[in-house]
Amino acid sequence: MARDLEQILAHVASLDALDTQGVPPTLHGFDLPTPLRPDRAVPAMDPELAVLNAPARQGTAFLVPKVLEEEG
Amino acid sequence: MSQAEKVLAGSLADQRAALDRSEINASELAAASLAAIDRFADLALVVTRQDEAALRDAEESARRIAAGRARSILEGIPVVLKHNIVQKGESATCASHILEGFVSPYDATVVERLRAAGAVFVGRANMDEFAMGSSTESSIYGPSRNPWDPSRSCGGSSGGSAGAVAAGIAPLALGSDTGGSIRQPASFCGVVGFKPSYGRVSRWGLVAFASSLDQIGPFARRVSDCAALFEQMAGHDARDSTSLPEPAPKVCERLDGDVAGLTIGLPKEYFVESGVDPGVLARVREAIAELEGAGAKFVEVSLPHTTHTIATYYLIATAEASSNLARYDGVRYGRRAKDPVDLEDLYRRSRSEGFGAEVKRRILLGTYVLSAGYYDAYYGKAQRVRTLIRRDFEAAFRGCDLILTPTAPETAFRLGEKSGDPLAMYLSDVYTVSANLAGLPALSLPCGLANGLPVGLQLLGKPLDEVTLMRVGDAFERRTPHHRLAPPAPPAPPAPPAPKGAA
What we know:
The complex is a heterodimer. By secondary structure, chain A is mainly α. Chain A has 2 helices and 2 strands, in the order ααββ. Chain A has a two-stranded antiparallel ribbon. By secondary structure, chain B is α/β, with parallel strands linked by helices. Helices cover about 35% and strands about 15% of the residues of chain B. Chain B is built from 16 helices and 13 strands. In chain B, α3 runs antiparallel to α4, α10 crosses α12 and α10 packs across α13. The relative contact order of chain B is 0.14. The interface between A and B is large, with 39 and 62 residues.
């Protein structure tokens, strides 16, 4: 893996040869303004359905190992 | 060959006619397609059958046709979906262990639209894990085998979709194209593959790989079939913020077989003898002569930054992938490692166990090129070179209506030939990645055989000009027999590897 990554990084280093001073970056396929919609509540996915794929859950909440230590 | 198999192997127009004349009904056609999935199981093209949904949808379709209420040209037609396009109640594994067992709670926009058009989804196609690859070898289902020669790759990452259409499992399939993942497999399998302009087809419900490059597109055995499928699924979708607000073009009515007066550019950087298979170059030159005979004019154009496209692409695609794939953490869906000691252990082991080698390689590379201290040198630099590549096309298109190139520098390579050398695999995308970087529409269509294997011709269009590409592709098809070439059937089972030391 390390050798592969080195080889790939050596290949992409070819871009160093290009002068990109003053060239603006292209961030997306097309320059579109961020579309806005009215700030209105719309129905969302049923929570039961949304957690259907959870590896572990309690009701409609996802269960994970405890993050906070007990107090005291 | 049964009547259903014969119909299945034909064009969309033939299928439409057979269904409308009641020579066959939609349920029989779906059943034949499902049977074909099994018949070609050894090739690992369609790796998940969706019998229940397919037969239910087909029955409803048959009823609508019988009542004279067919919804569109796609009514009752079997369609294969790539394993990264979600359908409610069905799996979408992206050919990855991390999404094994996932069942989608919603439909992708393309699925919604094609179902509304009457299409019947029969199964899900094999792919490179998370669409990261050019050979459909990095898959939990094993490699897809090319129907033309099972010892060879279908290309990738949409290899299963391309192979399914070539083998006759279904007349239509959907794939996704981030750097050539529709066009290169279309080329390797001898079918038509189309990447629309960025933003033309909604990405809602397509599992994200590199969001500024990904586009869903169709596979078919005819350009006109590809156009019909594209028309039904393209157009604005408010759920995808990068979806173009313009209405999608009506392509089918514009396919008039006429190319007279069109100017086609040939980029001199693509037509170099070194690095391109001579057989591929010969077929492409014959295609040029054919179009010239039909009245098209050819001019040489230059895309000076061509040699930098692969480096630019792999920096941007891996950066975006590392961000997109951060969501697979074993918490909300997907694979979770057993008995994690704490949250970090859960994250680390779920991801380590769930992702394959190529996906890990790209996440690592993407994370590295985005990291503080390297961002400007790698990701920032690549975004600026992306602008130079886009400008190359803007300049070239001032002198021509579209650009013609080979789709891939070679015909289908052998399985295993490149899987040990990631850089060599990346370089096989040399002709296709620039369309994604510049957001252009691009079409690959068959233009003959070299060494007994299909060769793909690529047409690159101006932004949003899908119509001209389809018109030229269709006109080429009307003048040539290449689209009628089919793989030898039935394919022989793959030979076991010769024992070491054998002659």
